[in-house]
Amino acid sequence: MAGSDAILRAKRKKAQALLQQGRLEAAREVFGQICQRDRRDYEAWVNYGALSGRLGHYADAERAFRQALSLRPDEPAIYFNLAGLAELQQDLGAAEHCYREYLRLKPEAVDGLKRLARLYLTLGRLDEAEHYCRQALARDGSDATLYNCLANVKQDQGDFEAARAAYETALQQGARPAEVYANLGNLFNARGDFEQSLIWYRKSLAEAPQSPATLGSLGHLYFRFGHFKQARDCFDQALQIAPDSHANRWNRALLLLLLGEFRQGWQDYESRFQTVETIQQFGRHATDRPRWQGQAIPDQTLLVYAEQGLGDSIQFCRYLPLIKGRVGRLVFECQPPVLGLMQGLAGVDAVVPAGEAVDHDYQLPLLSLPGILATDFDSIPAAVPYLHADAEHLAKWRDIIAAEGLKVGLVWAGNPRGLNDKRRSLPLSMLAPLAGLQHVTFYSLQKGEAAAQLQQPPAGLEIIDLAPQLEDFADTAAAICQLDVVISVCTAVAHLSGALGRPTWTLLSYPADWRWFLDRDDSPWYPSMRLFRQSEVGAWTPVLERVAAALAAESAAGK
To answer: Taking the alpha carbons of 438, 444, 446, 451 in that order, is the dihedral positive or negative?
Structure first.
């Protein structure tokens, strides 16, 4: 026993010496040896966990911290470490739980209040973020980072003046000017003020010219206002400084795909599961099976899963028949609203709802298929229709939509929780130029919160509401097949109408989402689609005036 104690003392001394020398991997190895010799050595487990986390061995770090917690269940520091580890892995639910446990054991801890405030800000839970931020400020009113956090919260709440005042207080309390200036740039960017935002970003970069975050924000500003070369330069520079800056790589992917630079664009697009923003939007898919790389697996099952919105599932399910020859069994997991629609998709052996257990050997997110198949403009699979309405639904809608003249479906708003929805959606009132058109009957396909706007339509615009009878997208598909034209903003209905090969007029903001590319009024994805674009940010009225003129011409031609 004495010999064993002597060995442990020697190892502890060696581990500490290695730490002081900065030899972290060697120190981690020795702490690991101590843990194996004495599984009740709390300090060794904590050190092994901390070093494992710093060196990127996250699974080892969590196991070590859990073991330390079993030895001291009421030690708040362990919960703090576990929360930080969860944040590193972008498991924000686990981080929230651990920070709450930390504050349960140490309720006055400003660091825990501050971390939880920032976590809720990231999650978009703004009232909770403000609550914890103000609790922390009540305990330490001189912490500049807390004022910065509060300003971020007020900005996301849309309170411009309160946000600006908090940023100014942060500056007075000693916050880094570069950070505050960048945040002021973000504030004006959110307000749509290009010139003021540009001024503040440039001031920030004058203080910290190598900041990948500020370069990325400036790139986003240029991108948003159509200055694509400058945006590309900013993203490239940011990624040269910090190649693992996933948010910048994601934004560059959207830009490159918009410009039609597919090869690098598809590569960068794979960063979408590595940023907090996109993980919040798209979620994670729980499967431990290897990712399919495009190789032949003739005797095995591939699970391809829908990863983003309904429109993305409708647009990119066209790729599934193209890979059937490479796999033994092909299973598509999709969102329940499109499940019925997808049942007849060619080349797919089974279509299952999200969350259903499926035996499979490999897995792949749906929007990785264009990259695997090296899609460019010449190889976009554009044969339509690739989705179809079934006979039963068609019979139902044949009697419901039976007006004379031009029958036009309308969708003016997307999912309000979608990325950039404020830019792609418009209020029903903006459709006023369509009022008074002769020999045209309008039908609403609009679902969700925006459908309530039908209670107060623009003067003279009569719209028949179909939404109460649209149970799912199989219904919507059959309804679209009875219409002459579908007019929609960039939503799932536009994609569905295009996938059915129906005449579709899509209304696009400036700049449009990457899939619509630049400066064209047609879509290589959908041969039956016509694009009506804004010429500048927010300019919807000229778009609707062009649509009204085109509808009048269609109606006159059909008389």
So the answer is: positive
pLDDT band at 1 (very low <50, low <70, confident <90, very high): very low
What whole-number distance in Å separates Cα of residue 532 and Cα of residue 520?
A: 9
Q: Within a 10 A sphere around the Cβ of 429, how many other Cβ atoms? A: 13
**Residue 158 reports pLDDT greater than 70:** yes
CA 174 to chain centre: 34
**Residues 256-283: b if buried by 16+ CB within 10 A, e if exposed:** bbbbebbeebbebbbbbbebeebeeebe
The identity of residue 152, as a single letter, is: N
* Residues recorded for the chain: 559
Across residues 405-429, what is the average pLDDT? 87
pTM score of the predicted model: 0.81
Q: Dihedrals φ, ψ of 508, to 5°?
A: -120, 135
Which residue in 463, 457, 424, 468 sits closest to 442, CA to CA?
463
Q: What's the gap between Cα 525 and its chain centre?
A: 22
Mean pLDDT across the chain:
92
> Which residue's entry shows tokens 């990785």?
368
Residue holding tokens 């623009």?
458
Strands 440-444 and 350-353: unpaired
Per-residue DSSP letter, 522: B
Reduced DSSP (H G I as helix, E B as strand, rest coil) percent helix, strand, coil of the chain, to 5: 60, 10, 30
Structural contact between residues 87 and 102, judged by C-beta atoms closer than 8 angstroms = no
User: What pLDDT was estimated at residue 3?
Assistant: 53
Ramachandran category for residue 260: left, alpha or beta (phi over 0 → left; psi -120 to 50 → alpha): left
Q: How far apart are the first and last CA of the chain?
A: 101
Highest mean pLDDT: which of 3-7, 22-26, 251-255, 274-278?
251-255
- Region of residue 524 (left: phi > 0; alpha: psi -120 to 50; beta: else): alpha
CA torsion sign, 398 to 403 to 408 to 410?
A: negative
pLDDT band at 452 (very low <50, low <70, confident <90, very high): very high
Q: By the 8 A CB rule, do 365 and 345 touch?
A: no
508 within 8 A of 532, measured Cβ to Cβ = yes
Joined together, the tokens standing for residue 273 give 């599961």
Structure tokens at 493: 């209905």
DSSP sequence for 371-388: HHTT--GGG----S--S-
Residues in Cβ contact with 314 at an 8 Å cutoff, skipping those fewer than 6 apart: 338, 341, 387, 473, 492, 495, 496, 499
